[in-house]
Amino acid sequence: MHAEHELRAILRAWILRTNGELGASELRDDTPILETGIITSLDAMELILLLEDLRGAPIDVQQLDPAALRTIDSMYRAFFAHSGGGHVA
Amino acid sequence: MRTLADLVERLCRVSATRPLPPIDWPARVALDQWFFSPELLSLAATPELAAMSQAERQRLSFCEAVNFFSLNLHGERFLVRGLARRAAQPGWSALAPYLQHFRAEEERHMAYFGEFCRRYAGAPYRDRTLIVPRQYVAGEEDVLFFGRVVIFEEIADAYNRYMGADERLAALVRQINRLHHVEETRHLAFGRALLPALLARYAPTWDAGVLARVRAALAAYVAATWRAHYNADAYRDAGLGDVYRLRERAFADVRARAYRRVFTRGCLRRLFDHCILTEEDIDACGA
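Output (structure tokens, whole complex):
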């Protein structure tokens, strides 16, 4: 189980590691990551796998609203906030 | 020297006279046999595979065959959409006749791969590909599209050739791999001629930043293509646990990376020779 701050930290670390050039101070939880090219569409497949692992449930990409992946805030709201208190079983 | 137009005319003639043979689908397949060459399994270098019984490895080989066929299915769906769009555009009118054959043949291949996955696994594995719209400079989208097609098809064809000749494998998967290889020779010939022609036309118009962006994108696609061979869903179906961590470990394994490097250099050698891919870009992507 991950608390909200842990989930956000994991996503932040993944984005910074995947991008490889972005400084930590340049990534806020409301920073768009796809439309700015911080993360590419090829990276998005790996991001979806990470999200599936963290939430313990598959994500149907065919039904996915791309806006859900826009920022760390939107990812938390779309995939974890409904679990109650930010904890993911 | 044969021109692209000469090649396209020849490929159209061959495609028009080369029907795809039907497959005699058995009612079921026994899982106590090989469906994927053991040395090509994505977990080949891992202690997890070493600890598995032969029956468990054969079960994994079935799941990896389903994944490989699923990747072909999803890749060809992307290809078919791109070919259809271009065949309808005025700038592609000279190549449109062959693009139509190419598209029709890929749709038939999709039927093979989809049929195997549905009959024996219930469904193909999920496609997690996400297309994010972006802006391109002139020619960039076409180079990236056909670059991805060539990369995908060259790697898949190398696997098709290997497994089509591997007599340890179930006859049905050998047949599918062999048929796909025979069919793909025309598509590969087309892509190998078209991609350098597109680059010769557009690369001189690009600045250094665009050229670097295109090379990086193609190298990233090589890495993504390899990563897709490591499927957590397949590992779960094969009875393995902690599948996401297993996938990461298997992909990062130095022996696996060395194997992929040699394989990539071999089957994508034309792209290296034309300086479309570089070793540095491939290394940077961790492929």
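The interface with chain B takes residues 34-35, 37, 40-46, 48-50, 52-53, 58-62, 64, 66, 69 of chain A (CB under 8 Å).
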